[in-house]
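Internal tracking record. Fields below are filled automatically when a chain is submitted to the structure queue. Please do not edit lines marked as system-generated. If the sequence contains nonstandard residues, flag them in the REMARKS field before resubmitting.
Queue: standard
Priority: normal
Entity type: single polypeptide chain
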Amino acid sequence: MPRGLKLLKGLVIALMVTMIAGLVTLVALIVIRFPVAQAPAQLPEAITLPDGARAAAFTQGRDWYAVVTEADEILVFDRETGEIRQRIRLKTQ
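SYSTEM-GENERATED OUTPUT FOLLOWS
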């Protein structure tokens, strides 16, 4: 085999090994970086709002959940007891 052809064959093999190593590295990084799927947060079975309050939106944290009412008030509930932890009245312009 001519000397130039041997060099070309060596370069092609080196490129193939580099590409395979790069692909394996990318797949490994994707697997490592993506978090493991977590169980979805549990919604409360029932929410008792104060008289006359109507829910407009809902959000939750680890140990609380909140309901935004149509009267522009945020009611923050304790997840364990279901009692209102905090009331926040929003100012309207």
